[in-house]
Amino acid sequence: MYHYFINRSWMVSTSAQSVYRISAWLSLGLLVMLIAMPFLPKLPSALSELFRFVLFACVLGAAITFVAMEYFLFGFDTSPEWKKGLWFLMLCLIPVGPAIYSLVVYSRSPTLERKRSERPEGMAEEFRGSK
After folding, report:
1. Residue 79 placed within a domain
2. How far is CA 64 from CA 20, 26, 112, in A?
3. What is the pTM of this model?
């Protein structure tokens, strides 16, 4: 029997969709910040603290996006297996891969468009545990 700590309804809720969208954009912001970091001169103390705070928010967004999109890929995505395999490889390219998956696949998934009563309660058929 499988025990999951993430409730299935959390993944498809409108709040989760907003959080994952924001996290995906923060994840892309992390890439920009990492590229810009060597080119920044020595920042004053106040700007340095602000930069570190924004950097922390971007790292947190990248982590949220990575974990959530991996969970969505294996539990909800109804794509053919070969597409799942390609997306899995893309998800390994942190911070860009999970953000692109979130903005392209997750946000357009038919699972999110279904009425709340039609959404699946358990894992995808191949991942359901026997009780």
Report:
1. yes
2. 7, 10, 18
3. 0.78
